[in-house]
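Summary for the funding panel

The consortium committed to producing paired sequence-structure records for every protein in the target list. Below we show the first two records in order, beginning with the earlier of the two.
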Amino acid sequence: MNRPTLVDERDAERPPAALLEAFDRLGTRVRFQREAEIYAQDDAAEMFYRVLRGVVRTSKLTADGRRQVGDFYYPGDLVGLEPGPLHRFAADGLTACELQVVRRSAVRAFAGEAAVDRAILEATAREMDRLQDHVMLLGRRSARERVASFLLSLAQREPSAPVDMPMGRRDMADYLGLTIETVSRMLTQLQGEAIVEFPSNRRFEVRKWGALEAMAA
């Protein structure tokens, strides 16, 4: 089945122009290796980050020591726009990545308080939407539906097949609230039913868009 025509919903979520100009004029390009820490949970939120290359993962350690993956950020996404003084999640390079980094105080001086406050408010609203979607994903869907939704979200980012999957089974499990064994079993089932096909461990193709979308709906 042919893949459907996809609309980039992020066009409606572009940060304010003044903030992007501040990144372009004041930002420093910094490279991080895979698994390298960008900032830690509860660090002071003194810097803003824009992903230029690679994928960034955010995560949080719970009180009982378990890791919860927050989300994955791709080129063009902003990371670290916190409403408060501290980072609620840690961030690290899921892959080798390059980020534009700019000091929060420098952005305020360049773009003005209003532009920065609006950017933080909009970023917080987007994060709340993501969190709400994530809660619904974890609370209302079966393991099969969670994995299908995750694969669909990755496929919708790619303009062509096969789709690169930068995260491993552990990351998927910690994001979806499942065990690695369950994630692996669901992927095997989806491949066995010819809904998706994995030519390699980190790449897949959607073979039955309608079936995948129905499970993710």
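The next record, for a separate protein in the list, is shown here:
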Amino acid sequence: MKQFGKIALLVGVIGAVVAALIVFGARLGLWEPVTGFGFYRTYFNPLAAIVVGVGLLALVIHLVRREKSQAMLGGVATFIGVALLTPMISSTLNPTPRAAPIHDISSDTVNPPAFEVLDETRAGARNTLEYGGPELAQVQAAAYPDIAPLETDLPADEAYQRAMTVAQNMGWKIVASDAQRLRFEATARTSVFYFADDVVVVVTPQDEVSRVDMRSVSRVGRSDQGVNAARIRDFQERF
């Protein structure tokens, strides 16, 4: 037990590495995003609790024995465990409202932009690209009333080029583009768990100016936790 502080630190480091793999494993190609998310829901908090427990035990034992260096290692392990528990602690102290149970958000819910290249064969997709109609539009209007078309003073060609530039700067993978018809399709990835969402952007000429519409759809999950609406807002603000 004289080296328990070192053991606790080792447990903390291993826990941190495993936690990082759970969150970023899909980005590294180890598994599908939904698998990593499943690991997170099942193992992340228990893993963090084990690290905290082992770290605290080492800290107390070595403080009682007045073994300062080993106690410090136990303290570091405890800190790592608490850091891993931060998402759970934060959500408990400051619970966020439950997101609307939708995953398909469009700036135009009357004539939502349609996907023409991306289809139901896209990798890992469990959600359809077929728009949900008036019922979906009604839920979106209640949950995200600010989502609307982007009116711009730019001519349509310039608006299309700017939209493409913004999409690329946001890290989207452009799947198909049609400069003549002023539309493109792309795939965006979430920073955490690396979920794939599919996006279509359409520019409509309006005399000397133009209008930019965008639709963002998650491949998996009934609810997108507000990610697609946030993406549309981000795109419009950058534009």
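Regarding this second record: The mean pLDDT is 93. The longest helix spans residues 33-64.
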